Amino acid sequence: MDPQLTLYLIQALNGLQLGLLMFLLAAGLTLTFGIMDLVNLAHGSLYMMGAYFAATFISLTDSFLLGALLALIASLVLGIAVEVIVMRRLYRRDHLDHVLATFGLILFFNELVRAFWGPAGLTIAVPSWLAHSVQLMPGVIYSAYRLAIIAVGLLVALFLAWLVTRTRTGMWIRAGASNRTMIGALGVNVQLLFTLVFGLGSVLAALAGLMAAPIVTVQIGMGDNILILAFVIIVIGGIGSIKGAFIAAMTVGMIDTFGRAFLPELLKLFLSNSAASTAAPALSSMMIYLLMAGILVWRPTGLFGARS
């Protein structure tokens, strides 16, 4: 196969993998924001806690799958506890109170991690049964673990699509995003619905964290920067829309990956090698924010947000 085409295919897979990781994080955030009208800056901390839980349980059980399962259960319990103890007191307050309270949660979780796991970062080994490469076609060899991330992300996307569009719980979720007062009047337990949605969002964030853990360093504040991209994704896709979050995450993943891969060579035509290497990541990020700005000008509610 032509080397240039091989490079394009591999970068497309990298973009798909990044996009699906971002979708896992953004899906829970868009549900929380869209249904509960809650600006949760601490969502990235749940991503971080999922990674730390995974590092601990995988080490204790010596099994990646069992450790990941226990980490998701622990993250669900943590998410429900946070919703019951903190978030319920914020629903009737304005967004500034949401920002201040959840920023406080970021500081709390960062110090909690520092106290229990220490300031040094942790690493999680790729499971032995995925620590190899797979030949997808002649000349195209790709990491088995990254393919597993793609598969898990697609399965979760299909599950969420089924949950939201085909189940009674999904009907309540969609109704809650449209008019929470009405579904409360119809007898739906809105408080329990909010707890379930927040717990689901916590599990999705933790799943993204534990899947990313073997390819990044598990460290304090690891979810803070990625949270910004998650907010960009839900703004582009439309707050409360799972379909919008998926499409926006794929778009952002591809723009970021292809920009970082190919912009340096393009910029080297005009700049020095060091300047091109420095400018390319910044321009990749700028393209994402320019896309968001353009979509907001064209459609202020996002691609699939409800029209006012």
Description:
This protein has 308 residues and is mainly alpha-helical. 74% of the residues lie in helices and 3% in strands. It contains eleven helices and two strands, in the order ααααββααααααα. The chain has helices at 3-36, 43-61, 64-85, 95-117, 144-166, 168-178, 180-185, 190-212, 222-237, 242-267, 273-298; strands at 133-137, 140-143. The chain has a two-stranded antiparallel sheet with strand order 1-2. β1 and β2 form a beta hairpin. The longest helix is centred in the first third of the chain and has 34 residues, at 3-36. It is globular, with a radius of gyration of 20 Å. The model has no long low-confidence stretch (mean pLDDT 89).
**Number of helices, counting only DSSP H or I runs of 4 residues or more:** 11
Proportion of residues in extended strands: under 5%
Structural category is: mainly alpha
Straight-line N-to-C gap: 50 Å
> What's the β-strand tally?
2
- Major beta sheet, strand line-up: 1-2
Q: Any low-confidence stretches, pLDDT <50, length ≥5?
A: none
pLDDT averaged residue by residue = 89
Query: What is the helical fraction, as a range of percent?
Result: over 70%
Shape: globular
Topology:
Layout: H1 3-36, H2 43-61, H3 64-85, H4 95-117, E1 133-137, E2 140-143, H5 144-166, H6 168-178, H7 180-185, H8 190-212, H9 222-237, H10 242-267, H11 273-298
Helix pairs in contact: 1-5, 1-6, 1-8, 1-9, 1-10, 2-3, 2-4, 2-8, 2-9, 3-8, 5-6, 9-10, 9-11, 10-11
